[in-house]
Amino acid sequence: MTKAKQAQNQRSSKGQMRVIEAVMASLIVVSAVAFLYAFAATPSSQPQETSELEKIGHNVLHDIDEQGLLARFVYRCEWANLTSALVVSLPTNVYFNLTVYDVNGNPISHPLMQYGNQQVFDSSKAVASVSYIVPGYQTNYSPRILVLKLVRG
Amino acid sequence: MRMARQKKGQFIIIAALMLSIMIIAISTVIYGTVTYYRQERWEEYVTIVDSIKTASCNLLQIGLANYSQTSNPYVLRDYFNQWMRDVRKAYPGFGVGLSYSLASGIRSAYGVSLNYSLGLARTWNQQVSFSASDATVDIDVASLGLSGYNFSSHVFLKMNIRETKWYYKETQRYVLTYVSVDEEGLEPVVNLQKSNFEVKLSGLPQTFSIKRYYSSTYKCFIYEIRIPSDPAGNPPSSVEVALLDTRRIKTVSYTTDIKPEG
Q: What does the DSSP assignment read for B158-206?
């Protein structure tokens, strides 16, 4: 009888230890995850947004260039056509402002090539800027630098 | 027995500790990997390199167009020298550096051996004529730690006078010449208009009409050029077709192989 009671006591203390061990192990794992969560710096959406807009802007300019239209628009000063091509190619909620410079940084495109209200550009914190270079047109070398600024409306 | 049980208990704690260390270590590595591009302004660098690459390829085309019209053999070298300086100006603060090497000597392009000099080659006044340019460009971006990114680019225009026939009928006489045009990758050029061609018979400029279609005879896209000739005249001694494509690259094909057809 005494032996049986002793065995029962041993079993119950063994069970308690298992519970304590499990709780301790869980605490260790949870504290590790909590530690990671506390130190993980989640990126803010602003740089991501700018990066996304840069990608869109570059792709659109590249596509227009691949079609052989970009150089024509720039060197024949077809600014209205260039603006229309960008309006058509960019998503509707993306506003842009495009300026064309020569290689010394002097602006060439006098009329304002812009889609969207200027206020949107002034108030937006995430303005993406894409530089795209066009070396020349037909047989002439005369580089032009296109600076395309993009914001989401 | 008791010692054994105690060891078993310690093992669970140690296992949990090791598991925690593994979670932290793996998470740190994965987090560092997936966020690397954000720290490195990756998109900005990719767009710069891509922009320079596209522009360099366009420059090769502009150089060839100029050479094919002016015959200036140094034009591509001069353009690339200027391009090296201007790229640095265009992207200040990025440490962009560009170097180039122009093709030289005999090289094969799309199954044809062309003799390049300063990146340019042309074979004109033959039944199959070519204009081509070839260069290798290296791009370094110091601010990224990128160096030695290089690519080769080539521009190519080929015109082939497939066949020329002189028809001498009682009412009218005319020359029909069948021409195929290919560019890089031996892709057929299908968007040419009458204004892209000039035709000479026996060295004299001619008026002509043009039709374009896929020919099952030649198994390629063909420009059929019809040139009316003097009803009382003799067959022409030669046919010369000059082509200025939409990129302003020129090539001239020439043949004396004219088949009379009654």
A: EEEEEEEEEEE-SS-EEEEEEEEEEEGGGEEP----GGGEEEEETTEEE
Same domain as B254, residue B183: yes
The structure's pTM equals 0.77
The answer to whether residues A84 and A128 belong to one domain is: yes
pLDDT tens across the length of chain B (262 residues): 455 555 555 777 788 888 888 888 888 788 777 766 555 566 677 788 888 999 999 999 999 999 999 999 999 999 999 999 999 888 888 888 999 999 999 998 888 889 999 999 999 999 999 999 999 999 998 887 888 889 999 999 999 999 999 998 777 889 999 999 999 988 999 999 999 999 999 999 999 999 999 999 999 999 999 999 877 778 889 999 999 999 999 999 999 999 988 7
Token pair belonging to B162: 């497939």
ipTM value? 0.75
B38/A51 Cβ within 8 A: yes
Q: Are A102 and A143 in contact (CB under 8 A)?
A: yes
Name the closest residue on chain B to residue A22, using Cα atoms.
B12
B219, B95: one domain: yes
Q: Which of A127, A141, A148 to mutate to test the interface with B (most CBs of B within 10 A)?
A: A141
Please check whether residue B83 is in contact with residue A141, taking contact to mean a CB–CB distance below 8 angstroms: yes
Please tell me whether residues B59 and B89 are part of one structural domain: yes
Contact A128, A149 (CB under 8 A): yes
Chain A CB contacts of B50 below 8 Å? 58, 62
Residue B67: other Cβ atoms inside 10 A? 25
Find the domain containing B45 and state its range. Answer: 35-262
With an 8 Å Cβ cutoff, are B62 and A139 in contact? yes
Residues A140 and A91 in one domain: yes
Of B16, B27, B55, the CB nearest to A135: B55
Chain A residue closest to B16 (CA)? Answer: A25
Mutate to test the interface with B, among A27, A60, A139, A145 (most CBs of B within 10 A): A139
Q: Are residues A126 and A66 in the same domain?
A: yes
